[in-house]
Design goal:
The protein has twelve helices and five strands. The chain has 318 residues and is α/β, with parallel strands linked by helices. It has a five-stranded parallel β-sheet, with helices on both faces.
């Protein structure tokens, strides 16, 4: 079976070519419709820049994943890797001013300092103008990676000082297949004896955790299923009218024992709606946790075990 390229492959290849040719810009705007894709691309580029022996010949290029720089970057403890992200609804002036003070000194360990500005379009006007002064005089060794939906969403003077790299969204076919696979898996977990279900959940967690894209698709599919179940309960709709994992069917009619609807109905009798809603909120936090380079396999294992135990997972910690 052909495995489609990851959405981050294209921006990483473009970035790798610039590095290979010695044409590294001081600022890049990573733009695209999917926030997770553009942020994963930015973090991958940051790791490449901080890696002691990056593999620029790979397609896409990649950090070695083993050196001190890679290890510290992966845990976001590298002193030359700085992040700015929205404080509430926006990025504010004090955050950018603090960044400017940090840039006075040379990089501490690496030859470069990497500054990732997540959702740069959420800078308020004062913060954007303060950043503009920094981009005009970025300082030796500083590389800025800004993420935003489009260059139009950025202050025009900031966009003009960045090289734009487009980050495509995951294809609809890939997302639909991944989401369908997760829903089928959930029905199997619900129907199977506990020992077999646990083994299936752990194996699936390992499989989905192989790439950030697959992990994100799995979490979003679980969020969609929880949403459908909650809507069904709140609207007093029968479970048989929930979307069926088979894309050629829109509902399960007159469920008999052993069908997906019958299993879901029995499972819903084991869990309180408050716990299901809490699980939905937990999945929201889990999706955000994927951006923090959390252990994806453990996260997904916890997410899938709810369908076996009917108990929401423990709270996530940063």
């Amino acid at each position: 079976m052909h495995t489609p390229p990851a959405p981050t492959d294209i921006p990483l290849k473009i970035f790798g070519r610039a590095l290979t040719r010695g044409r590294l810009a001081h600022a890049y705007a990573l733009c695209g419709p999917d926030a997770q894709v553009r942020e994963e691309a930015a973090f991958a580029m940051a790791r490449i820049l901080l890696c002691e022996t990056p593999n620029l010949a790979a397609r896409p290029p990649a950090s070695c994943g083993k050196c001190r720089g890679c290890t510290r970057a992966a845990h976001r403890t590298h002193p030359d890797l700085l992040f700015i992200e929205p404080d509430g609804a926006m990025i504010r002036v004090p955050q950018v001013r603090e960044l400017r003070r940090s840039l006075v000194y040379s990089p501490l360990e690496a030859t470069r300092r990497v500054i990732v500005i997540r959702e740069a379009h959420l800078m308020n006007p004062e913060a954007a103008n303060t950043l503009l002064k920094t981009l005009e005089e970025p300082g030796e060794g500083n590389v800025f990676l800004l993420t935003a939906p489009s260059t139009d969403s950025l202050l025009s003077t900031i966009a003009s000082r960045c090289q734009t790299i487009r980050c495509p969204a995951p294809s609809e076919e890939v997302m639909e297949e991944g989401q369908e696979e997760v829903r089928v898996l959930v029905l199997e977990l619900i129907k199977s004896p506990r020992p077999r279900a646990i083994a299936m959940a752990l194996a699936a967690a390992s499989r989905f955790a192989r790439t950030p894209e697959a992990a994100g698709t799995a979490i979003r599919a679980l969020k969609g299923l929880v949403r459908d179940l909650l809507l069904s309960a709140w609207e007093n709709r029968p479970v048989s009218q929930l979307p069926h994992p088979d894309r050629n069917r829109t509902e399960v009619s007159d469920p008999s024992p052993g069908t997906g609807a019958e299993s879901l109905r029995a499972w819903l009798g084991r869990i309180r709606m408050d716990d299901l809603a809490a699980y939905g909120a937990w999945l929201d936090e889990a999706e955000r946790a994927l951006e923090r380079n959390i252990n994806r396999e453990i996260l997904l294992g916890a997410a899938l075990l709810l369908w076996i135990t009917a108990r929401p997972p423990a709270a996530l910690h940063a």
